[in-house]
Amino acid sequence: MITTTGLRKVYHSRGRETVALDGVDLHVREGEVFGVLGRSGAGKSTLIRCVNMLERPSSGTVQVAGQDLTALAGGSRRANAELRAARSRIGMVFQHFNLLSSRTVQDNVELPLEILGMSGAERSRKAGELLDLVGLADKARSYPAQLSGGQKQRVGIARALAGDPKVLLSDEATSALDPETTRSILRLLRDLNRQLGLTVLLITHEMDVVKAVCDSAALMKGGRVVESGTVPELLATPGSRLARELFPVGGEPSAPGRTVVDLTFHGETTTQPVISQLSRTYNIDISILGAAVETVGERQIGRMRIELPGRFEDNVVPIGFLREQGLQVDVAPVAGADGTATRDEENTK
Ligand SMILES: Nc1ncnc2c1ncn2[C@@H]1O[C@H](COP(=O)(O)OP(=O)(O)OP(=O)(O)O)[C@@H](O)[C@H]1O
Ligand SMILES: [Mg+2]
């Protein structure tokens, strides 16, 4: 539904060049909720602004719903009209709502419909429908200042849906909201995704957001996508940073010189018999340091952190045994003398 190829964006300001996007290839499938994560300055907002052409990419292409938007930009008058039409079918939700304070809720939602050239009666009917969809029918005559943050964001979402978009873009839509309101807005986005078949591309700082609603996710760093895939795919990728951040299994080794192993198991495979078999076969004591079971989509995914006596070199055979049982096995980095991990452990925040 959304495909970017080799997307680059270079900003020039006061004689300085900033490469905000450095060759981004992203693919968002129709009907999915796709989350983009990354630290501040990674290029997330630039990416989303290039997807709806609020920002002209320096090079590369953006396709939305089969249409190459980059080819339309800066073209003939006809191409520009096509670009405007295409953009009206891409809804955008903002962190700070961007509502007009002098207009009522109803009028805020009617504004884009007015721009689309819809007649007065039609506008009012459509805005009413949209407010109903986001659960705010009773607030039509209120002004933004009379609403809570969550209600304001619902108006923002209703307004974004005015052009009957196929795609909804959201840049940190919930980061100004408290956790409970965040959950209710995420539920709304999820419902709209299901009911309307809306494809949602959302940017967030919060792993919980990805866990709650995303089918797929990508991690950005320095203007590039460094990881991307469906959540189950990410979980099945050894060493995936997103998987580790999404489903952390805590637990510190009980003493130095031991091997810590993270196991991931999907659906039917349960670790319980595997762990006791391992213990019996190799006559070793195994400690469970942490465990969690998560539901991703409709599937259950379990993670367990275990500790084996001895160093990695002493445990090559038992680790091989675990892999043979079809478990995904990640050996945790060894702590150095100062207690810091010797492998590059980076946070995505
Ligand atoms: N209009 C601009 N002019 C010059 N540089 C810009 C402009 N917009 C963004 N940048 C730079 O591009 C880089 C990426 O910025 P961007 O806003 O996309 O990051 P982000 O991932 O959205 O960060 P945050 O999480 O803080 O919102 C940053 O180095 C930023 O300073
Ligand atoms: Mg941003």
Automatic annotation (TrEMBL):
Keywords: Amino-acid transport, ATP-binding, Cell membrane, Membrane, Nucleotide-binding, Translocase, Transport. It comes from the Bacteria. One of its GO terms (cellular component) is plasma membrane. Pfam families: ABC_tran, NIL. One of its GO terms (molecular function) is ATP binding. GO terms for biological process: amino acid transport. Residues 2-247 form the ABC transporter domain. PROSITE patterns: ABC_TRANSPORTER_1, ABC_TRANSPORTER_2. InterPro entries: AAA+_ATPase, ABC_transporter-like_ATP-bd, ABC_transporter-like_CS, ACT-like_dom_sf, MetN_ABC, MetN_ABC_transporter-like, NIL_domain, P-loop_NTPase. CDD domains: ABC_MetN_methionine_transporter. Homodimer. Forms a membrane-associated complex with FtsX. Belongs to the ABC transporter superfamily. Part of the ABC transporter FtsEX involved in cellular division. Has ATPase activity. This is ABC transporter ATP-binding protein. It comes from Streptantibioticus cattleyicolor (strain ATCC 35852 / DSM 46488 / JCM 4925 / NBRC 14057 / NRRL 8057) (Streptomyces cattleya). The lineage of its organism: Bacteria, Bacillati, Actinomycetota, Actinomycetes, Kitasatosporales.
